[in-house]
Structure formats: C-alpha cells, structure tokens
Amino acid sequence: MKKWIPLILTATMAVWALSGLHQPPETGFHTREFGKLPVLMDGRFQPFDSVARNSFLQIRTKQTLDTESNQTLSATEWLIEVMMKPEWADDRKIFRIDNGEVLALLKLPENQKYYSFNQLRPSADEIQKQADRINPIDDSKRTVFESQLMKLYDAMTLYQRLEISLKPPDTDDFAAELIAYQNSIAPGLAAMKARAAGAKYDHDAFNRFIGYMSAFQTVAGYALPNVIPPADPDSRLDNWQNIGTNLLQSAGTGQIGPPAQSYAAMVTAWRAGRPADFNQAVAAYHIWLEDRFAPQVKKARQEFFFSAFEPFYKAMVIYVLALVLALCSWMNLSEWLRRSAFYLIALAWVIHTFGLVFRMYLEGRPPVTNLYSSAIFIGWGAVILGMILEKIYRDGVGCVVAGFAGFVTQIIAHNLALSGDTMEMMRAVLDTNFWLATHVVTVTLGYASTFVAGFLAIIYVLRGVFTATLTEQTAKSLNRMVYGIVCFATLFSFAGTVLGGIWADQSWGRFWGWDPKENGALLIVLWNAAILHARWGGFVSRRGLMIMAVIGNIVTSWSWFGVNMLGIGLHSYGFTDAAFHWLLLFVASQLAIILLALTPLKLWRSFHNKTPNAA
Amino acid sequence: MLKTLFNAFSSLKLTVACLVIGCVLVFWGTLAQVHLGLYKAQNEFFRSFFVFWQPAGIGLKIPIFPGGYFLGTVLLINLLAAHLRFYQPGKKKIGIMLIHLGVVLLLVGQMLTDALSRESVLHLRVGQAKNYSEAQRSYELAVTDTTDRRSEKVIAIPCGLLARQGQVTDSQLPFAVRVKTFYANSDLSEKSADGFQQVPTTSGFGNGFWWRETPRETAMDRVDMPSAIVEIATAQDGPQTFLVSAYLEQPQQFTYGNRNYEMLLRHERYYMPFSLKLLEFRHDDYPGTDIPKNFSSRVRLHNAQNNEDREVLIYMNNPLRYSGLTFYQASYDPDDGGSILQVVRNPGWLTPYLSCLLVGAGLAIQFLCHLIPFLKRRLA
C-alpha cells in the first residue's frame, strides 16, 4: 500500500491543479466573457480581466472582494461595476490604508482595513494638497507617511480614471444617449457654423451638441484603457482609442462605430439589470472583433486563461505540501514520505515551468524582465538544483530545499505583483531579448544557486543544533552539496556579471560603472570566490564553510533587493518599503543562524555524545 | 627575507583576505553612494589607493581602508606570484590557468580603461554638424583672436590651470591672463539674493551679475558650473577684469593691440578628424504610456581625409564605432529637436570580451575534466 501513496497523492494534486481549467457555464451576466475582451493599456494588449486584476491588486492588494451580503466579487465583476455603475462601486470598501498617520489626516476610523471611495471623498482636497507637495520629492527621500499617502493618491487616481473609462459621469441609458448624440451631430454642426458666421442659429441644437462634446472630452482626457479598435485592422497600435476620443471623432463622420455602440449596449443592459441583453451585446461584439482583430482577441483569451489557471499559485500550494512531507520524512526516515515529497515537487515544477513558459510566450520575452519575474525564475532554478541534489543523495535534503525555495519565491513574487502590471513594457535600454536572455538569466541563476548553498548550510546548522539527525554521513553529504553548489554559483554569477558588463559596454560605453546593481553582482562573485579559495586553502572547516554559505544568503538578498532600495543608479526599478522591513528581518534571521552555528559543538544535539572531530 | 616576502605574496590566505576586504569595500562604497553620489563615491572608494577619513576641523586625511586600486594591484601580484609558485605543467591545470589568466586580463584591462578611456558628449540639434565632442565635467577658457573672421585662432586654457589662480601666458597670446577669483562651482544671478555678492569686474557685461561659490557637485547627473574673474593685462590702458562663467553663453569681447578677442568659459572640446551631422532624431513611447520604446539618431558621417560620406543610424544598444571612438544614444532634448550622444574613447574595450572567452574556456575545460572521469566511473 505504502508503495502507492506517493503516486496517489501526486495524481490527486494534479487533478486539483487541472480542475481550475474547467469552469461551470456562467449564469446571469456573462462577466467572464466580458473579461476576455481585448483592450490596449500600459502599451500592450490585455483582456479586461487583467486590467481588473492589476488595478484591484494595486488598490486593494487582493484579487477578489467579499461583499457584505456574503457574495464574492471577482476582479472583473468589480471593474464592470466601477465602469458601469460607479454610484454603487463608490460604497465598496476597497481602498487599503494601513498607515495611522494617513488615517489620522483623513479623520478615518482606525479599526478598518479597507475604506470606500465615499469615505475618502470629503478629504479629496486635502489628499490633493498633500500629493502636490510630495510629488516633487524623490521616491527614496519620502517618509513612510509620504509614500503611503502617494500610494493612496495613486490608487484613487486609478479608480477615478476607471470610473469614466466606458461612459461619461451621470449617464444612465448610455445606448439611448448615443443615438441622441448621433442625431444631434448634423444640426449641432449646422448651428455652430451659423454661429461662427454671425447668423441666426438653433440654440437648443447648439447646446445639446456642445453638452455631449464636453462630456466626451472629459472621458477622452481621463479614460484609462483604450477600448475602441481602429476602423482599419492593419493600422498601427497607437490607433486604438479610448471611448471618449472615439466619440469626439464621430462628430466628423456623423456615424458612431460598432465598438462604441456595443459597449454602450452593455452599459445600458447592465445598469438596467438585463442579463440577456448584456450577454447578447458581449457575444456580438466578440464576433465582430474576431473577424477583424483575431490576433488581439487570441492574445487576450490566452492571457485570460493564464490568469484563471493561476499556475504559480497552484505550484506554491504543492511546494508547501511537499516541504511538509519532506520535513516529516526526516523525523521518521520514512521512504514513502520522501518519495511523495519528490513526486509532488516534480509535479509543482512542471506546473511552475508551464506558467514560466506561458508567460514568456505571452510577453514574447526571456523569462526575467523585472523583479517579479526574477523571483519566479530564482525559485524555478533553485527547485531544479534541489531536485538534482535529491536525485543524487536521496536523503530528503534536496526536497526540503526545493519545496522551501519554491514556496518562498512564490510568496515574494506575489507581493511584488502588488505594484501593478507584471508584464509591463520594457524601457528602451532594456529592450533587447539577447541580453535579457543571457546576462539576466545567468545572473539570476547565480542568485538562485547562492541561495541554495546558503539554505543547505542552514539545514546543516538547524539539524545539527536542534536534532540528532545530523549524522556523519548527512554532514558529509551536506558539505559536498554546499561545495558543489558554491562552484556552480561562482560560475553563473561570474559569467552573468561579465555579460552584464559587456551589455553595458554595448549600450552606454562603459564596461563597469560601479552602479549599485553591478556592485551587488560583484559582491556575490567575490564572496563565492572567497568561499572557494578559503576551502581550497583549508582555512575553513566544515562548519566555517557553512557559516560562509549563510553569509552568502545575506550578500545575495542585498544584491537582489537591497540595492534597489538605495534609489540611485540606472538599475533601480523597484522600490518597496515593505520589502525593506522583510529584508532587515531576513538579515537578522541569518545572523541568528550564524550565532547558532558558532555555539560550542558540545551544545549541538547531533554531536552531544560524539567526538566533535567531524565538524 | 625575499623568500618570505614571495611566500606571503603568493599565499592563498592573501587571496582570501583580498576577496573578503573587496567585499567590504564594495559594500561600503555602494552605501556611500547614497550620501556622496555615485561619482564621488566611485572616486573615493574604487578609483583610489586608500579610502580616507577626514575628521571635521582638522586638515588631515587619514587612510583607513585600502581602496580599489590598492586591492586590485595586490590581487594581481598575488595571482601572478601564486601561479609562479604553484605552477605545474600538465593538462589538469590548464582550466585553472585559463580562468585566472582571464581574471588577470580583466583586472589589467579595467585599470587601463580607467587610465586611458575618455568620455565626452556630442550634443547635436537636428541639422547641426560638429567635428568635436565636449567633456561633461571639465571646462576650458577659450581665448579667440577674431580679427580675421575667416581664420580665427583659438587658445584653450584648461580649467585646472585657472583653478591655481595664477597667471597664464602663452606664446600665441600677446598678453597674460591673470585669474583673480575662481569658483569651481558657483551660482550666478541677475538679481541680488541672500548670500550673493555683486561681481566686481571693470569691463564686459559681468557687472550686472551677482554670484556666490557653491560646494562641488558629487551626483552623477549634475555637473559643476564654474565662474571666474580674469584680468587681461594690457599695457596701454591698465588691467581690465572680466567675468567668465559656465552660465554665460555669450563671449566677453575686448581689443588688444588693434586685434579683437573673445573669451568664453566652455566645456572642454575634443576635436575629431571627421564630422557628424544630425539628420533626424526619433523618440517613440509605447502607445498610451510615457515608457520610452526607442530613441534613434540618423546622422551623416563625413570624413574629408578619405572622402568618406555615409549615413549611420545610432540607437539604443546599437552604437557607432568609428576611428577609435564609440558613439552611443544617451539622451535627447526635451523638445525632441536634438540628440545627445555619449562619445567614448576606450582603447581597452576589447579586454573584457577576451577575458570572458578565456574564463569561459577555462571553466568548460575544468568542468569537462571532472565530468568525464565521473561518467567513466559511472559507465564502468
């Protein structure tokens, strides 16, 4: 029976992971279908679903909303409400504010985590005043209060822009309004002409037309996603417009295009609570788009599928399970536990890889393009190393490393995703797939392997001090693992650093500029080289090697995150102050482990009764 | 004695010590950038033999830590000495040899680059042609004889000479240029303001200005703006003093012995034996964002010496390499009507590429040397 447990467990988790692909047919409003519609935002085509998820993450730090009536709103359902019935959305408690000073400034109760737009509305002027003052201050020089207030300000701006992304404010039956607008164009233009010529003109026709124009002008100026495709499918990307610009232009042709009419029909149907009409409008628009913009529709659908499948989240859950099983396997040295852990890690890795490759396909880029994707990729590389170690040594250590690395890097990635779209476009200087694929990938693998070595060393210390499971054999194999991985890390971080220098030479004429990120990479190379030379010279014992490897963790976390927090140099692209606290905490934990490692061996449970010659 | 010294310099302990001290230096130097700015921190920590500590109030500079040059040199000596001492002929060590040879080349190459490379800037408006680039941080005082507008003679006095506040003579100049006051970095204002003093000059258009000395710039993206009062020692009507400043775009004019002169404090110029003319500058953002997608400059390269005349497109990650200089797309004018190219002369630019190849080959050999026996054991 025990022989079959690993396979059964893995199959169960595989079924669970794949079950997300099957979604029951929608009843009521087909919001998922709406979520698949392609729009142009942040310089790239994406489905409404992604606009909703990324905006919701930025505002609320979550992708769903539990309402007071115990319903769960998906991000898209929320976005539809914001765009189509903002008067309802304004009461939803979605703005996350954690900072006490910000709450005090806005005179808001402290016992809530989330606040509605209507709660914030009375303080809008105060927030604007503060933001105007803070805006010129450099990101890195802002106080916690200042950066938190700017975060709220940005979230409110985003929210308000989304509110007028599909219709002008205070419009109820948008479809009817558009017909009225279309009918007002000819008489309105005639009246304008007559007025300009100083002749008698129809005041009503003039005012009605001007009224529409000024409402659409507001939308044109602030609407966020460009939802209206160009009339000519072969024209440039820039020609996608927001609905306001499109309606203003309609005055010239006298005709309102099918996309604007479709969206107006959706707004009207949704506001009137008529699911059948809404669904019909969405379906008809899908067909219309499919005929003309097949590639964009396809890309939006693929991205929708990717978000719905959540490969990284699923991989994370399985990694955790594997980690727990692997840790248990150390307690009772049970082979079936270890094997279960190994199979589960392999499964999670397959899902992880699928997500990684799918993302690369969606973006048309190598795996690492920003801090978020570096976390995903570091985890991926570390899991491979863990699996190789497990394959060679078969003692559960590789499984623990892989499970832990997979889990933690996904958590880090999730938190990094809170700052916005993770598939954002690359700035001109970074826009080169060749260097992203070589320099960035190798350097990131260097990070991953240094972390693996450090984590192996932590296992050595913790098992040695707190358990009696660090046998001579385990200690020896851990020693060999750390040494091998450090060699590997030196190779990758050196190659990656030099490749980075060559890229810099190619793009701005300087092989080396002592930029903080470059220095961070150099630190890893120097430290790894120091470890290797110290070992070759016999200056460090087994324990010394472990301590040096743990310091490697500090060095790597510093180059990965710390240098971005300095806010200087060409590489500083992702500052997050919450991350700073975590970094400090991480460094403190590593120092604690080093202290632990320095305790006399007679206090180590594993060496209690033995001669400590081994260490 | 020599033997002990040699042993010390070739020891692995020294290597480890250098590497660890290197880590500390790099970390410290990176942190220092927050306060000192990238440029100054780079000079104090990495492009120096020692890191100095300067206690406030005392004019003393106390060396407290080895700097980049010192550490690099020791590491280099250590590497070479260790190879002399431990060198063993044979296939086994080829990998290790190649790796370290690559590292040596990298170190030497970077030191050469530091010593020999020169960075400057070529700012072109659309339609403009230039045959010189300008240093970003250093200035020169150009004294031009403009009597014959067709063949102007220019004498350029480097800023370093001005800073010594002495008298500058040149065989080409019939008068001496005497520096009365020199501010390496300054503010200049047309109105009186707190801390500003009126510029005391006798001639030219300096009188209307107010100025003050300011601390030297240390950030990478800002440069010093020097100003000075110089005196032209003329025999006939007594000394005349003029204001020259990096803020002033118009030259000061004067006559001496029936000849007309102009004087301008400008960025130091490096002349090239060819010219570049900006034909077109393009700057695209991603639709609906302000994220730059691409910058490019279409230029015409004209070299009268060999009648070369062709169009070149310079854009991000695609520089122009010509006659020992490399031109990179660096920046642009806010109105998109001009382009700023970074001009780099670096005779050692190939060394990192070579060292990368050497280290790569070394690592591959080393890896194979371990892998093949391992596989053989496995298969046997």
The level of helicity of chain A is 55-70%
Averaged pLDDT of chain B, please?
Answer: 85
- Overall helicity of chain B: 25-40%
Q: Kindly state the number of beta strands of chain A.
A: 6
Radius of gyration of chain B: 27 Å
Large-scale geometry of chain B = globular
How would you state the average pLDDT of chain A, rounded? Answer: 88
Biggest interface found: A-B, 57 and 51 residues
Strand order of the largest sheet of chain A: 1-2
Describe it for me?
By secondary structure, chain A is mostly helical. In chain A, strand 1 (38-41) and strand 2 form a beta hairpin. A two-stranded antiparallel ribbon of chain A has the order 1-2. Chain A has a two-stranded antiparallel sheet with strand order 3-4. A two-stranded antiparallel sheet of chain A has the order 5-6. Chain A starts with a helix and ends in an 18-residue tail after the last helix. Helices cover 68% and strands 3% of the residues of chain A. Chain A has four domains: 5-10 and 48-163, no CATH class; 174-301, no CATH class; 310-417; 426-615, no CATH class. Chain B folds into two domains: 2-117 and 350-379, no CATH class; 119-345, no CATH class. With 380 residues, chain B is α+β, with helices and mostly antiparallel strands. In chain B, strand 1 and strand 2 form a beta hairpin. The model of chain B has no long low-confidence stretch (mean pLDDT 85). The interface between A and B is large, with 57 and 51 residues.
